[in-house]
Amino acid sequence: MAINYTVTEVTKEFIKVKYQDDREVVIPIRTWVDKEWIEANIQQRYNEVDEGSVEDIPFKVGDTGTISTIQEGEKAIKEELIKQQELEASYTFDYKLMRRVSYPFTNDSIGALIKAVLTGDKTELEEINKVIEEVKAKYPKDDKKYTKDELIEQKSKAPSRGHFPDGYLRGGVAPIFVAVNQ
User: Fold this and answer.
1) Within 13 Å of residue 129, how many CA atoms lie on the same side as its CB?
2) 178: DSSP letter
3) Residue 33 lies in a domain
4) Is residue 131 in a domain?
């Protein structure tokens, strides 16, 4: 059953909520908390029937602990996100991956090859070969490293871009997920 509520008052210190059964609760808040946090508290303060037992509670009398404040936790999460973004921005890729995302889709190549063998029409095969040669010229076998932005840009232009889920590139040991705005 869904919990229906109406916000009846909002201040910097609290938010007052009225539930569908006309009960009202006051939830202490601070300006740095988000809507998800407030709704979680609205949900927690709804007097739902508890079907558990005391043994289900992860605390016992006499337990102690030290926890960070909400602001400290939010700050740590933001700092970790920035580190992760910096790490991802520092990724580099070699010519092999740049070629791999640039080459025509394998099934297109096989189809062109079969057509050339069966009908003698090498037009599609020659077009695919031309693209392959252009890619090899653009990304020669060398030690140059390419950035994530260059990889994303090349992926967005690649002939095979329509054959893969948006944002997915396979490279190295693990898949690489990148945003591609097409």
Assistant:
1) 8
2) -
3) yes
4) yes
pLDDT tens digits for range 5-62: 999 999 999 999 999 889 999 999 998 899 999 999 999 998 777 788 999 999 999 9
CA distances from 28 to 37, 41, 72, 92 (A): 11, 9, 18, 47
Could you tell me the residue range of the domain that residue 18 belongs to? 5-47
CA-CA distance, 117 to 122, in Å (whole number)? 8
Using the CB atoms, write b or e for 19-51: b if 16+ within 10 Å: beeeeebebebeeebeeeebeebbeebbeeeee
Residue type, 116: A
Which tokens belong to 8?
Answer: 């009846």
In a domain, 137, yes or no: yes
Q: Which helix (H) or strand (E) holds 99?
A: helix 95-102
Number of independent structural domains in the chain = 2
Backbone angles phi, psi at 24, to 5 degrees: -120, 140
DSSP per residue, 132-146: HHHHHHHS-SSS--E
The separation between CA 50 and the C-alpha centre of its own chain, rounded to angstroms, equals: 35
* Per-residue model confidence as pLDDT tens digits over 52-96: 899 999 999 999 999 999 899 999 999 999 999 899 888 899 999
